[in-house]
Design a protein that fits this description.
CATH class: Alpha Beta
Order of helices and strands: EHEHEHEHEHHEHHEHH
Number of domains: 1
Helix content: 40-55%
Strand content: 5-15%
Length: 254
């Protein structure tokens, strides 16, 4: 059973080496892929030096394209399980291991590491990392919107700490929103009938640099999320490839 952990990153040279090493220490059996989203610094070089495979996009295309690239790589190579952490160091690899274990055990197809799930039982997790005010407002709105349009309760719909099995990787490889892709992915997975689960995880502040998401961008993303979820709720279920078709597709020459 092969596992891939991919890390979308844009100008994260200050953190990426530590993130890659953390993943390799906690999941030595997994392959590590850094998707360099057109960085203008040495993110790609530092990632390679730390032992990661690097896929460099020709220019900055946004988080959605970077995440989709990770899933396309996983689906095309044929990994059985796929985990994701962000390149800024907010997601400890030990927490990803807990999330991956839920998928590997067969409890679910998709597992999300949530900052807000069951915080009464885990009060330390509720205070380990707090997003900025406008982002917290967006998360509350996204939580309500996604829960209403998918028919399933979510507490942390923008979390980038997650794991999927092969079926989830196939679904997530095909279409992404450019901003906050997690919303569309979770909505599609729920409508497709995948088994989704959230567990409480501890996150931390970024290791270096600062987020590219400004207050103005946050407001813009909130507006786009309304459109994405509204349109997504009208989509029909997609026909999925059988195991035999997937193997045949991967075997075809490019």
């Amino acid at each position: 059973m092969r596992t891939l952990v991919f890390i979308p990153a844009f100008n994260e040279q200050g953190a990426i080496s530590a993130v890659v090493r953390d993943v390799r220490d906690e999941l030595p059996e997994a392959d590590v892929l850094v998707v360099d989203d057109g960085s203008t610094d040495q993110t790609a070089e530092f990632a390679r030096a730390a032992g990661a495979i690097v896929a460099s996009l020709p220019f900055n295309q946004g988080i959605g394209a970077a995440v989709q690239t990770g899933y396309i790589f996983a689906e095309s190579v044929g990994y059985d399980y796929v985990g994701r952490v962000d390149g800024d160091g907010q997601h400890p690899a030990a927490q990803l291991l807990r999330v991956l274990d839920k998928v590997r055990s067969g409890e679910c197809d998709v597992c999300i590491g949530s900052r807000f799930y069951d915080t009464r039982s885990h009060p330390a997790d509720a205070t380990a990392y707090k997003p900025a005010l406008l982002r917290r407002v967006g998360i509350v709105l996204f939580r309500w919107l996604l829960s209403r349009t998918s028919g399933q309760r979510f507490t942390d719909p923008t979390s980038g700490l997650c794991a999927v099995n092969g079926r989830g990787a196939w679904l997530f490889a095909h279409r992404h929103a450019p901003d906050y892709p997690e919303l569309e992915l979770l909505q599609r997975a729920s409508r497709q009938g995948l088994r989704l689960m959230e567990i409480t995880v501890t996150m931390r502040p970024r290791l270096a640099g600062k987020s590219s998401i400004t207050p103005l961008k946050s407001a813009y993303f909130i507006f786009k999320a309304l459109i994405i979820c509204s349109v997504g709720s009208l989509r029909a279920r997609e026909d999925e490839l059988s195991d035999e078709s997937s193997v045949e597709l991967r075997a075809r020459p490019c």
